[in-house]
Amino acid sequence: MKTIILGIESTSHTFGIGVAAFTDSKPAILANIISRYVPEKGGIHPREASQHHITEAPKVLKKALETAGISINDVDGIAVALGPGLGPCLRVGATLARFLASYYDKPLIPVNHAVAHIEIGKMLFNLSDPLVVYVSGGNTMIVIQKKKRYRVLGETLDVAIGNLIDTFVREIGLAPPYIIGGKHVLDVCAEWGSNFIELPYTVKGNDLSFSGLLTAALRIAKNISKDNRNAIGDLCLSFRETAYNMLVEVSERALALTHKKSVLLVGGVAASKYLDRKFKIMTSIHNASYYVVPPEYAGDNGAMIAWTGLLLYLHKRFIEPINAIVKQKWRLDEVVLPWLPD
Ligand code: FE2
Questions:
Q1: How far is the CA of 139 from the centre of ligand 1 (A)?
Q2: Measured in angstroms, how far is the CA atom of residue 198 from the centroid of ligand 1?
Q3: What pLDDT digit, counting tens, does each position of 28-79 carry?
Q4: Homologous superfamily of 2-119+299-334 in CATH?
Q5: pLDDT tens for each residue of 152-197
Q6: CATH 3.30.420.40 occupies which residues in the chain?
Q7: CA quadruple 213, 215, 216, 221: dihedral positive or negative?
Q8: Cα angle 66, 71, 76; round to 5
């Protein structure tokens, strides 16, 4: 028997549609098409991003169905990320999902975006109970599963790590664009430096606070001449090392506490090879296996929504289209997931 779910992602800068299938209990991703909004200057402008999603939605949907080699009639359910995220962006995905579910008479499946980041990683590596480190533009969390929910062992108390890094490079005049030759501009800048500068390092129990680091680094940057590449490089290098070391410290403490056998790094910042290197060393010290979600599934994407939607579909977690309301602050630990152990 084959079950096919179409998943819609529109929580932030990315509009994506993915198709996931279960054929005789074997999972497969049949399509994963994304279109990303890139602001001309400054951070994400939610209305502009939602306009981008509205314009791109028909093309992305058509391409996803073509890539999967199916028509919309072959789909068993429509999954959509209803939160957390930016209101105007979320509403584009919710509107499309309500239309497709109503017009084609398909079940509508509400998906929590954060849960989807974790589930795609667990599926790709066939993991049942990892310690999850979820790092993205909007989230920084250390997560385990317990009593049918994902539980947050530690998280940022203010800025998320992806947002921290992007704000820093933007404020010092290095971005946009944020990616140059496949590298984040923070990493490009860090290559110009060689000295470590002491910056605020704020770990509170198992939580993190990045706002002091950001403020201090921006204050130092103000006094550096634009031509002094070595000094800017030292600051970028120190900024990255401080932020990543804080994250590795809380992850290591959570690993020592829980004795998990595996660590899974998920979310857009998981693509950083420098973070990857630190996690490889830390997990090897604790004899834990380590997995990092590949780039096409690390950033926001429709495939992870489709896959999580498929798991929910198998447990008949549907809602009426009229009830598909966006939840901008929908935390992952609010969601009861029937496939997780007690
Ligand atoms: Fe995300």
A1: 8
A2: 31
A3: 999 999 999 988 877 889 999 999 999 999 999 999 999 999 999 999 999 9
A4: ATPase, nucleotide binding domain (3.30.420.40)
A5: 999 999 999 999 999 999 999 998 888 888 889 999 999 999 999 9
A6: 2-119+299-334, 129-296
A7: positive
A8: 120
